[in-house]
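ERR on first pass: missing label on line 2. Operator R.T. fixed the label and resubmitted. Corrected input:
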Amino acid sequence: MTTVDSRTPDALADAERWTAHNYHPLPVVITDAEGAWVTDVDGRRYLDFLAGYSALNFGHRHPGLIAAAHAQLDRLTLTSRAFVHDQFADFCRGLAQLCDKDLVLPMNTGAEAVETAIKVARKWGYQVKGVPDGQATIIVAENNFHGRTTTIVSFSTDPDARNDFGPYTPGFTIVPYGDLDALTAAIDENTVAVLLEPIQGEAGVLVPPAGYLQGVRAACTENNVLMIADEIQSGLGRTGRTFAIEHEGVVPDMYVLGKALGGGIVPVSAVTADRDVLGVLKPGEHGSTFGGNPLACAVGAEVVRLLQTGEFQEKSEKLGHSLHEGLRAMPGVKAVRGRGLWAGVDIDPALMTGREACERLAENGVLVKDTHGSTIRLAPPLVVSEADLELALGKIRKVLS
Ligand SMILES: Cc1ncc(COP(=O)(O)O)c(C=O)c1O
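pass 2 clean. output:
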């Protein structure tokens, strides 16, 4: 992929020399981007079909989001929550209304929002449900991915994410994803919450069996257990709906949001829930210096406005059909999962590994990322044009043929 006077090898070596090796990036060094396209240090252009793991749902440098960020940068960027700023209410009101919930608690990264949901659920369990002190448990699913903090990796089933990071936080029960009987059997009087991804992204875009999320909702309601939907990757238009859980007509007690909420510009995450749940927190019990800062709120409010139009959800649904049909018809493809503009593709392992597929796709001008073994994940920005989608599908076909 590199030529004699390419700047890529030096740029890669420099990055490698000065950073911890906690990622294994594709050998592409990006300098500029717009919409679904990025450009590297050598001037080569690529279609970005990863979109920052769905943080770039609205594409790179969406004009409305960039304008909101610029305007805010010129006025006010940080106050801390010690004071109130004029962007705060607008963002929180908009997001609460988008989620049809009473309250919003803004944070920064996805993992922080998950941690927030865990703390709120535990506190709700002790104060509202009446669980004995220190006994609260939360049910989670096998192959989950909720982030990288020590508490969250404590209930990961991925050895790479978990091993050697103990001692682990207790209080989590792990059940197979998609198995309603197992989940129902795991609920007892100390269960305060079920925490699930409505579609498991990192696991390979696994869609649970039809009726599963409805069954979980019913089991939670029946047993006075909070249903927490981690929509950090699946939410905000990615699957053709505002939230992936909507495909089953289910409303969780808490939404956990992140990634695209920051418009690909700043880290913005949040937990949303009704007052009887989020209202358990009192001053001093939780917070973050940067959570809900003016720049984050200005961008986040604009993200909410984009989603209120329904345009991106519709586009994802429509182009999602072309994406899935195109991928299913390809040689060397064993399975295609997902919804909307989101697909997990199992490539025949005899053909190549997921990593090899990603490297070859990058050489052909399409950026995607492998997950486990021979699975690759595609999540183009929702602003991708039909022509660019077809272009990428053609290149994927070429690599797999
Ligand atoms: C479902 C889900 N939850 C949580 C996270 C963690 O988000 P962050 O990397 O912003 O901490 C991710 C990130 O990929 C995710 O996909």
